[in-house]
Amino acid sequence: MGNSFKIGRFAGIDVKVHWTFFLLLAFFGYIGYGTATRAGVNVTLGIAVTIAVILALFLCVVLHEFGHSLVAQRLGIDVTDITLLPIGGVARLKTLPDKPVDEIKIAVAGPLVNVVLAPIFLGLAFAFGVDLTSPPGLAAAQQSVGGALFYLGLVNIGLVVFNLIPAFPLDGGRVLRGLLAIRFGPVRATDISAAIGQFLAIALGFFGFATGNLGLILIAIFVFFGASGEQQMVRQRETTRGLDVSDVMGTKRRTETVSPYNNFGQVLDAVIHGYQVDFPVVEDDGRVVGMLTRGEIFPAVHSPDKFRDVRDVMRTDFPTIAPDADLFEEGTRLLQESGFRAIPVVENGELVGMLTVDDIGQANLLRDLRKPQY
Fold it and tell me: What residue numbers does the annotated binding site for Zn(2+) cover?
């Protein structure tokens, strides 16, 4: 996930934090300042305790995501990373579960972690003599260790209840999709779950506007667009199921290449008179040594040194893929993760074609052509 940086690694899974997470800490620091002022607590201590409680809360979120991830690993599914966002955590699986029952297992594992954590925090809170006469919240958390632990226990209960709402892509929505997929298949099940999730998101958004709750509005936006994105991903997986990269890629004969020693005048001529805007850069011996994408071409057009050599501006940090690679599991994922719109297809060290975003979009047409005609 872009704009994130790694803070650790456990069980072979990178844990990352998105930069916007620190905006959340700053926001809660401000909330803690106001709460401490009203409660007559030392302001510095109040801010520090509030941030510590939020960090502890997000540690619970990380453990929740590891619940999903470790079960996914036991089922043979690789996990790319876990990323902390202001709205929670996201565990990225490299592949989607093929069996509905596996998706249910993975979805339930996260909330089960919070089911375990909640009584632990509540038990510790009572051991520290929590004051149940004061309403639970950040004010109580700032005033005693017991209050902070009691607050974390209640929040974990809230995480269980919230995540089990049948609003896709929340955990409850994934459980619902898994159950529906047993009867209707993955695409139809995703359509139904996504529709329910988006309906609940709209209702939650209206409630957030009516009550002036920005947090609910942000959650509603996340649920609405998350459901839409997941729906599109599942449809794409079913469209490309069973297809290899070689089934849809542009062959070497149809792929125009450039030399690292070409000047930009030659590249511009190829762009103007051809259909490509992303070019593999190939040495005389056939090795692919770089990629020249629209991201380099268009800015270079307006530079005063527009006729400099390709090797001066080409990208050398490019991925390649084999022609027999799975189109969805490897091709689509590699394009999404790299940010490229086209990647070279290489076999035995030589270029054999190009895989583009448009090629994947046309996979549905290829599948239709392959259907038996009666």
Answer: 64, 68, 171
Residue 162 burial (CB count, 10 A): 17
CATH of the domain at 279: 3.10.580.10
Beta 88-93 vs 342-347: how paired, if at all? unpaired
Does residue 347 carry a catalytic annotation?
no
CB proximity list for 372: less than 8 A, separation 6 or greater:
none
Write down which residue in 206, 240, 274 finishes a domain. Answer: 240
Q: What is the pLDDT of residues 68-116, one digit of tens each?
A: 999 999 998 888 888 887 767 788 887 778 888 999 999 999 999 999 9
* pLDDT tier at 160, thresholds 50, 70, 90: very high
236 and 295 part of one domain: no
* Residues 313-357 pLDDT 10s: 788 888 888 888 888 778 887 887 777 888 888 888 788 888 888
Domain of residue 337, residue span = 245-370
Binding residues: 64, 68, 171
Question: Do 209 and 251 reside in the same domain of the chain?
Answer: no
Could you identify the residue written with the tokens 């966002």? Answer: 85
Looking at the fold, whether 234 and 303 belong to one and the same domain comes out as no
